[in-house]
Design goal:
It is built from 15 helices and 21 strands. It is an alpha/beta fold and about 500 residues long. The chain folds into 2 domains: about 280 residues, 3-Layer(aba) Sandwich (Aldehyde Dehydrogenase, Chain A, domain 1), CATH 3.40.605; about 190 residues, Aldehyde Dehydrogenase, Chain A, domain 2, CATH 3.40.309.10. The protein has a 7-stranded mixed sheet with strand order 15-16-17-14-13-18-19, sandwiched between helices. Strands 10-9-8-11-12-20 form a 6-stranded mixed sheet, with helices on both faces. A 3-stranded mixed sheet has the order 1-5-4, with helices on one face. Strand 2 and strand 3 form a beta hairpin. Helix 2 packs across helix 6, helix 3 crosses helix 4 and helix 9 packs across helix 10. The protein starts with 5 loop residues before the first strand and ends with a strand. It holds the Pfam family Aldedh. Keywords: Oxidoreductase. This is Aldehyde dehydrogenase family protein. InterPro entries: Ald_DH/histidinol_DH (IPR016161), Ald_DH_C (IPR016163), Ald_DH_N (IPR016162), Aldehyde_DH_dom (IPR015590).
């Protein structure tokens, strides 16, 4: 970064607009240096962004699907071509490792624009079986035909999380635009600069003015103004359950559509006959990925007693050898958490776990770096279901291990949670693994894997969210269904 931190402007109605609230610094979690100055929108500017999206909706919703596909495909090409500078920015503002910023943030964003370029061309009409109608008070006999047609919802407020400033916004913007919606994007305050680069790429690709708008703020006022605006037809939110609950209350008063991807406390059920090295690799790499700041992490390990001690020892050994360091460093696996406040929150849970009587078998100390927000991966054993470290989402590189004896007990422990986003089952008995998976109250279950299928629906049960996205499910999420009926 040369010439001092870049001062960013808002993107409203296709124009770069000076923020009425000034700017605030975006901080590199590894160095505490200022990466750039993000704009502080006023509530009035947030409402102006909604108005711009409303004005653009009619023309954009009537744009031919082929044109929407062309623009999204062009955006994918631009993002891919600029992978290196975009990944450098993402690493600096989010603390992700270089490999993660390239492969899991920027590359995934490009892939999502490419995927929904195809999605814009997917059929939106579903023919329904005709019905023969007898004569009656409503008219004479006839055959009544019908179509179910998916229409764009309208203006979508996309409120995104800090743990992936490229893939998460792209996963909302791309399917919304593919269906003909317009969007107002309110990124997380910690790492919003990447989203402005995304807006630049979309504008360069040919997105008309007002179709994509980006407003930011360090506090909640901007997001609150967007969500409450009567011109917003749908809110797509990724973040904490606490914030999602407040947004849902506002949406309920206005009957706005919602797509909520909220918190998680994933259970990993490991049976005695599991492939232990595979389970260790899956759990160990996932609960520490992006310093544990992912909602899909298997942070509750429920281990059968015959394998329990070896699993705890294996997790402890793995946590100890994972390299914690600067995200740009070769071999770094675990970078910093997003902020000092979040580091302090994670450390408070480490202290709480000890106070609750759990045994800290690995990690938990603050690495001895001069600057930055660091937490070493931590493993707790001797845990019980009532402990707060077992029940609450920590959103850091912390895993807890609980023992079980029977399949029934394992399912009960897994279900004893407010959350239900993604769970995992490891067992050499595939029939049992699938049987158990079917009993877990979660939106997704990985059977002997932590991999994801990017066409599979993604979303949660209980307090982990409302609705499903990813693949063609996202196209359904960002549309309303209209019935067209005729008689012949």
């Amino acid at each position: 970064m040369t010439g001092g931190p870049r001062t960013q402007r808002l993107f409203i109605g296709g124009q770069w607009v000076e923020p009425q609230g000034g700017h605030y610094p975006v901080v590199d979690p590894a160095t505490e240096d200022t990466v750039g100055l993000a704009p502080e929108a006023s509530p009035a500017q947030a409402r102006a962004a909604v108005a711009a999206a409303q004005e653009a909706f009619g023309p954009w919703s009537r744009t031919r699907p082929e044109e929407r596909a062309r623009i999204l495909d062009a955006a994918a090409t631009i993002v891919h071509r600029r992978t290196e500078p975009y990944a450098e920015l993402a690493r600096a503002e989010s603390g992700a490792t270089t490999a993660t910023a390239r492969g899991m943030q920027v590359a995934v964003a490009a892939a999502r624009f490419k995927r929904y370029a195809r999605g814009a061309l997917e059929p939106v009409e579903e023919p329904l079986p005709p019905q023969v109608s007898d004569a009656g008070p409503m008219g004479g006999p006839g055959v009544v035909g019908a179509l179910a047609v998916r229409r764009p919802v309208g203006v979508v407020a996309c409120i995104t999380s800090y743990n992936n400033p490229w893939a998460n916004p792209a996963g909302k913007i791309a399917p919304a635009l593919a269906l003909g919606n317009t969007v107002v994007v309110k990124p997380a305050p910690q790492d919003p600069l990447s989203v402005y680069r995304m807006a630049e790429a979309l504008a360069e690709a040919g997105v008309p003015p007002g179709v994509v708008n980006v407003v930011t703020g360090a506090g909640p006022a901007v997001g609150e103004a967007v969500v409450a605006d009567g011109g917003v037809d749908m809110v797509s939110f990724t973040g904490s359950t606490a914030v999602g609950t407040r947004i849902a209350e506002v949406c309920g008063r206005g009957m706005k559509r919602q797509l909520m991807e909220l918190g998680g406390k994933g259970a990993a059920l490991v049976f005695d006959d599991a492939d232990l090295p595979a389970a260790l690799a899956g759990i160990g790499t996932t609960f520490t990925f992006y310093s544990g700041q992912i909602c899909t992490a298997p942070t509750r390990v429920i281990a059968q007693r015959g394998i329990h001690d070896r699993l705890v020892d294996g997790l402890a050994a793995l946590a100890a050898r994972l390299r914690v360091g600067h995200p740009a460093g070769r071999g770094t696996v675990v970078g910093p958490v997003i902020s000092a406040a979040h580091r302090d929150r994670v450390e408070s849970y480490l202290a709480l776990g000890r106070a609750e009587g759990a045994r800290l078998v690995a990690g938990g100390e603050r690495p001895a770096f001069d600057r930055g927000f660091w937490v070493a991966p931590a493993v707790f054993a001797d845990c019980s279901a009532g402990m707060r470290i077992v029940r609450e989402e920590i959103f850091g590189p912390v895993v807890v291990v609980l023992p079980f004896d029977t399949e029934e007990e394992a399912v009960a422990l897994a279900g004893d949670s407010d959350y239900g986003l993604v769970d995992y089952v490891w067992s050499g008995d595939v029939a049992r693994a699938f049987r158990v998976a079917g009993r877990l109250r979660s939106g997704g279950v990985g059977v002997n894997t932590v991999a994801r299928n990017m066409e599979a629906p993604f979303g949660g049960f209980r307090r982990s969210g409302v609705g499903r996205d990813v693949g063609s499910y996202a196209l359904r999420a960002y549309s309303e269904t209209q019935a067209i009926v005729w008689s012949g």
